[in-house]
Amino acid sequence: MAERTIRITLASPAVNAWSETFIAAHIERLQKVDLLVSGGNPPRHASRGAQFARSSTVGVWMDRAIARFHGGIPELLRHRLARRLAQERPDVVLAEYGNMAAEIVASCERAGVPLVVHFHGFDAHRDDYIARYDGYREVFRYARFVVVVSRAMEEQLLAIGAPREKVVYNCYGIDVDQFVPGDPSIVEPRFLAVGRFAEKKAPQLTIRAFRKVLDERPDARLTMVGQGALWETCKSLVDESGLADAVELIGVRTPKEIAALFHQCRAFVQHSVVTSTNDHEGTPLAVLEAMASGVPVISTRHAGIIDVVKEEERGLLCAEHDVDAMAANMVRFVDDPDLALRMGVAGRAYVEKHHRVEVQVAELQRLLETAAR
Fold first, then answer.
1. Residue 181 falls within a domain, yes or no?
2. Are 96 and 37 contacting, i.e. CB atoms less than 8 angstroms apart?
3. 254: exposed, middle or buried (C-beta count within 10 Å: 0-12, 13-18, 19+)?
4. What is the pLDDT of residues 293-338, one digit of tens each?
5. CA 239/CA 222 separation, integer angstroms
6. Do residues 78 and 27 share a domain?
7. Which domain holds residue 62?
């Protein structure tokens, strides 16, 4: 007799959980996500049934009045979540991000539902989050598994108290049928950056490195995809440095458009750094997408990047904040298209073997089924 398909409740802080590629892959490919709770920490919305927070004017006032008896709106939301979980009895809850898990762990325990937490980056490293949630002590105690996406994240969570037997490394997977290899040796020397304009991705350092490249190789070009808090800063830097003809800031693009852009570049570039709040990357999804597209990676020795980008084989890495070394690595690919092709082919082979989305999600499914049992 075939095993029963488990019923999964997935908790995501984003109002639109599908906006984050790795979470969308979980929603679409796990068997099966029966309920999605989202829209804040703790969650305010449910994909079906009553919402945890009312949205009408009268409903908002009613919730405020009721919340006085629960110790505030967050506690009211946790109470309603616990009640929903107790009613529906899912087999397991998957919390995307450690802070989401910390916000709902009491609700899961009250309802007697197992919890698996999936850390992604900032949630494992930022000092303010670790302090706010008391080092995730309650999460580590109650969760059946603690999933990490980089070896640096694994070491970090073990250092702050995660039990060794609960921590599982399961990095992101890529749809290798959507991101297919091109030939970076036959395109112009264009570099592509994809990601939020955020402090830990340091897009301004990518631009400064490229400024040095342009001094030596004036035919080089840089395209940057994304938006974020540092977008205006980067736009001003481009304008003030006289780079407007060589650097394009093209905003947000769809996955299909990004896949096409990979086929128009010589290499992918990203200057990830540890921030002033100790924020780190997990393993940047765009790095894996570039590799799946047969494009070599130029980046920093940071977090999960060093797990997947083997230096001098699948890309070129430098120390954080070393714009001179990053510029030199970019010049190498301008001058040696065949090097870009060799490293791009190696990166594609690595992703096909180790980072297929269907394989990575299947491993997560196995963990959830084990937790449910």
1. no
2. no
3. exposed
4. 999 999 999 999 999 999 999 999 999 999 999 999 999 999 999 9
5. 14
6. yes
7. 8-173+356-372
Those residues whose C-beta lies under 8 Å from the C-beta of residue 134, and which sit 6 or more positions away, are none
Complete DSSP assignment for 7-65: PEEEEESSSSGGGSHHHHHHHHHSTTEEEEEESSSS--EESSSS-SS--SHHHHHHHHH
Please name the residue ranges forming H helices in 68-150.
73-88, 98-111, 122-125, 127-132, 137-142
Alpha-carbon span 132 to 136, nearest angstrom:
9
Same domain, 126 and 197: no
- The torsion region of residue 39 among left (phi > 0), alpha (psi -120 to 50) and beta comes to left
CA–CA separation, 98 vs 262, rounded Å? 32
Residues 197 and 339 in one domain: yes
Cα separation values, 316 from 216, 263, 330, 333, 349, Å? 19, 19, 9, 10, 17
> Do 79 and 141 belong together in one domain?
yes
Burial of 185 (0-12, 13-18, 19+ CB in 10 A): middle
Helix, strand, or coil (residue 128)? helix
298 phi/psi in degrees, rounded to 5: -115, 120
Same domain, 86 and 227: no
Tell me the mean pLDDT in the region 253-279: 97
The first and second tokens of residue 104, run together, are 């709902």
pTM over 0.90, yes/no: yes
Number of domains in the chain: 2
* Model pLDDT, residue 15: 82
Dihedral over Cα of 305, 306, 311, 317: its sign: positive
Report how far residue 285's alpha carbon sits from residue 22's, in angstroms, rounded to the nearest whole number: 8
Q: Which amino acid is at 3?
A: E
> Pick from 360, 373, 284, 292: which is nearest to 30 by CA?
360
- 164 within domain boundaries: yes
What is the distance between the alpha carbons of residues 346 and 352, in angstroms, rounded to a whole number? Answer: 10
- Alpha carbon distance 318, 325 (integer Å): 6
Model confidence at 355: pLDDT above 90 = yes
Residue 1 scores a pLDDT above 50: no
